[in-house]
Amino acid sequence: MTRKEIHVISNGKQPLEEFAQCARLILSDVDYFHVREKQLSAKQLSDGIDILLQHGIPAEKIVVNDRVDVAAVRNVAGVQLAYHSLKVNEVKQRFPELKIGKSVHSIEEAIDAERLGADYVLYGHIFTSKSKPDVTPRGIRQLEALVNEVSIPVIAIGGITPFNVESVMSAGARGVAIMSGILEAEDPLSMIKLYKNGG
After folding, report:
1. Which CATH number goes with the domain that contains 191?
2. How many structural domains does the chain have?
């Protein structure tokens, strides 16, 4: 089985200083840290990247949600595009150095993202999630179906725990994206080890 890729995403609720402190603890076990702070201005996001860098998080592990301008100017690893973001192919053409992820919610969207040049897709939510309690989860079968339709990596998100992470990987996902499972854990380091080793 391919090594499990782990993405940890900021939740927009805790100060980025706290996120950076947590990131420093789990740095060696995480592939990418996503700065997902919709409420922040470009300058505030840039300042947040400085905080991560000051805590020893390398730029090549930082992904900025939506804001292509900030990701490009700060020379971080990449950008995570949403449905309301710029088009994948436009970003890819202008900023070929950025790793581009696209958040998708269907097989059709995933196929389209790959066609336009996305490096990977973020798909979910897979299981019942705190952030979307009233939305029916897509489940393992739909994840497996989507994985079989694209050749780029699929990162699963939504309700992922150390105890269901292996079912996600068995469905063909390249890795998982985690928010509350790590950020709200009493011991983030022990928790990330559980995720990495499958519970």
Report:
1. 3.20.20.70
2. 1
